[in-house]
Amino acid sequence: MExxxxxxxxxxxxxxxxxxxxRLGVSQSGGSRYESGHGMPPEVTQLLRLVHVEVxxxxxxxxxxxxxxxxxxxxxxSKEAGTKQSQERRLTSERRKLLERRSxxxxxxA
Length: 110
Fold this sequence. Notes:
Blueprint: H1 6-13, H2 17-22, H3 28-35, H4 42-66, H5 73-109
Helix pairs in contact: 1-4, 4-5
């Protein structure tokens, strides 16, 4: 899997460490360690990709479509609104599953 620059992603979304990492179920100090180059567990890497990286890609795609030709009309905009909602639901569902797996692996390790 491609290495994700967590610090660059966090700066790109414009969040402070505490808020950014809390969305992944990671403490601010843990996130700081990951940003400093310490090994990031695969579950956290997947959550980072789902919660922040894919959302950035989706927003970039939406922005490109918004600034596209005006010939697309109102139907296209309403269709995109439905697509955005389904994308957000899918990301939320996948995030919940990964958080559950992460907490289960922590319980087994304890």
